[in-house]
Amino acid sequence: MNSSILNQSHCPEVVVPNPVFFTIGAVSFAENFLVVVAVIRNRNLHLPMYCFICSLAAFHAIASLTKTLENLMIVFADVGHLNKKGSSETTLDDAIDSLLCMSFLGSFFSILAIAVDRYITIFHALRYHNIMTMQRTGAILGIIWTVCGGLGVLMILFFDFKLIMICFVILFFISLVIICSLYVYMFMLARIHARKIAALPVGGRNNHHQQRWGSNMRGAQTVTILFGTLVVCWSPFFFHLVIIMVCPMNPYCECYRSLFQLHVALLTSHALFDPAIYAFRIAELRHTLRKMLLCSDWKLCS
Amino acid sequence: MTACNILQSSRRHLVPLLFNLLLVIIVVFVAAGVFVGADCCLDWIVAKEYFCVPVQVEMSDFHNRSQTSARRSDYVWQYEYYDDEEPVSFEGLKAHRYSIVIGFWVGLAVFVIFMFFVLTLLTKTGAPHQDNPDSAEKRHRPGSCLVDIDGHQDENDKAFSRPLLAGSRSYFNFYINEEDKGHGKQKVEEKRAGKHTGARAEQGTFNRNRGVSSSGMDEMEEDIEEAGVHQQLTGLIEQSKTDRECTFLSHFNIPNFVNLDHSSTLGEDDLLYEPSVILERQSKCHDAHFDIH
Question: What pLDDT, on a 0 to 100 scale, did the predictor assign at position A186?
Fold first, then answer.
């Protein structure tokens, strides 16, 4: 009796087809793995800024790999080769979930580290090489990897406690606020000093204004893309967690929760966009990738 | 209160602000822990029940396996969000069932667009006099694509070529003056770079030295630390040429932030026009840097 009413108006779960997950996973793994290899191979890129980008790419590579593995497991379980309730399968599933959690957290912390590094570069430009030495960078990265690994394991072990999710959501929100404010500060400072420089007595004043406007427009674009991608990819998933905690029985919330796979797909597609936003902007890295990919046999490149 | 004053005062307050934020986080965690610890007495935390749905269906499987396990655990905790026994009733919905979804995405889009407009408004306040056709062109162009690879971008749209020229001229002149003592390589390279437009050459030099950067970054560096850098540059006169060059280059090793797409196009242009001279020098410098460290 109830089921007929439910069938009429309940929100069916939106299923993202497996090929989509596999494609996203494969492409993002390839991209991020190439970035990691390029940064490791090129000695010019052994600098703090590039190390953080490499760490971000490494986390994304692990995330896409584990998500693909998980989807493979789900496919096998649906077909019947795997027992969904078996102990080894659930252990493997837990391990994969904790790896996923670790890599998501790690990518988020790496983005935060990149923002802080850029902030220090701009606001403490001269002392940057004293503040951000390679040893400190290594220590920071070690801390990030350890903390994320530990948090990943903890979150999956104690997932049924609401505290974990509350911490997760609050951490996400505060990190988002910090990243946004750091980038807006940097943008404002860049704008102010662009204005100061353009105020110098040089010929072609009208051109100055247009070019300054053009450059600041691009700055606004860059910050918006950077922050916008982060927010658009991550917030649906976190809103999902908030909805689970706040209104599990509400039908409206139920309809939001039915889009869970879509939100996870968005989260994994963040690994697809990040190299284009961070790594591929660096000319040196693009040069290295070009050399790696195209110059195995050709004499075209030096 | 100008934006500059706001920035300076806020920078002073940033560190204590961050500490306060950290304290707030710790307090929230502790409060949440206490809250969850006492949640057994609170009625509205239905989520725990929602999580830990006793799945009676498991019983039949367990009977097949072993009696002891069935006796040990009558209920199996499962993390299933979409149970077959759907407890949510969809009767009497006033609004559309996807209203939360629509509201969330509309809010997100509004937030991102609002942020973009706030940032562009900030830029507009700094550019009062513009020629109308050119500004209209510029207005359309940023929206269309990120990477501008127009050919005629070179002359008009090198946003950081002119300010770069203006702002860094003092540095460059200083550097050249020091080089007049007899090191001809810098001049040779300058001449080589000077094959193309002066702006392009200078931007090429400076741009290659830092991975990618923007006029904002250069100008900001000069402005903030002008006195200090000038002194530092003075102190570098006694060093060897490579050392001085490397330190000079390393000052401009700024991350790609503003003008990323701009510099990326220029990076490609530089690859066309300025082969690997600067890259080699930078790699030599980095090697030297590493040897020194």
Answer: 87
DSSP string, B55-117: -TTHHHHHHHH-HHHHHH-SS-----SS-SS-----TT--S-TTHHHHHHHHHHHHHHHHHHH
For chain B, what is the radius of gyration of the CA atoms? 31
**Given A174, A200, A223, which is nearest B25 (Cβ)?**
A174
pLDDT at B94: 79
The span from the CA of B149 to the CA of A21, in Å, is 33
User: pLDDT (tens digit, 9 = 90+) per residue, B14-71?
Assistant: 555 555 566 566 655 555 555 544 444 444 334 444 444 444 444 444 445 555 554 5
Beta bridge partners of B257: B259
Query: What tokens were used for B219?
Result: 């100008």
Res B281 pLDDT > 80? no
Crossing angle (nearest 10°) for helices A205-246 and A162-198? 170
Q: CB contacts < 8 Å between A and B, how many?
A: 326
Is the pLDDT score of B270 beyond 90? no
Q: Between chains, do A193 and B220 touch, taking CB under 8 Å as contact?
A: yes
- The answer to whether B233 faces chain A, any CB pair under 8 Å, is no
Q: Give me the helix-helix angle, A162-198 and B99-124, nearest 10°.
A: 20
Of B47, B135, B228, the CB nearest to A126: B228
B161 touches chain A (CB under 8 A): yes
ipTM of the complex: 0.85
How big, in percent rounded to 5, are the helix, strand and coil portions of chain B?
70, 0, 30
Give the pLDDT of residue A301.
56
Where is average pLDDT lowest: A60-64, A145-149, B151-155, B282-286? B151-155
A288 with A38: CB under 8 angstroms? yes
Beta bridge partners of B259: B257
Sequence ranges of the domains in chain A: 18-71+78-198+211-294
- Is A202 strand, coil or helix? coil
**Other C-beta atoms lying within 10 Å of the C-beta of residue A122:** 25
> Is the Cβ pair A194, B126 closer than 8 Å?
yes
| Closest Cβ opposite residue A198 in set B61, B163, B254 | B163
Across residues B154-166, what is the average pLDDT? 40
Amino acid identity of residue A227, one-letter, is F
* B218 and B170 Cβ atoms separated by less than 8 Å: no
Interface contact flag, A210 B127, Cβ < 8 Å = yes
Domain spanning A18-71+78-198+211-294: which CATH class is it, in words? mainly alpha
Q: How far is CA A283 from CA A45, B178, B261, in A?
A: 11, 30, 11
Whether pTM exceeds 0.90:
no
CB A271 within 8 A of CB A60: yes
B161 contacts A211? CB cut-off 8 A: yes
pLDDT at B175: 39
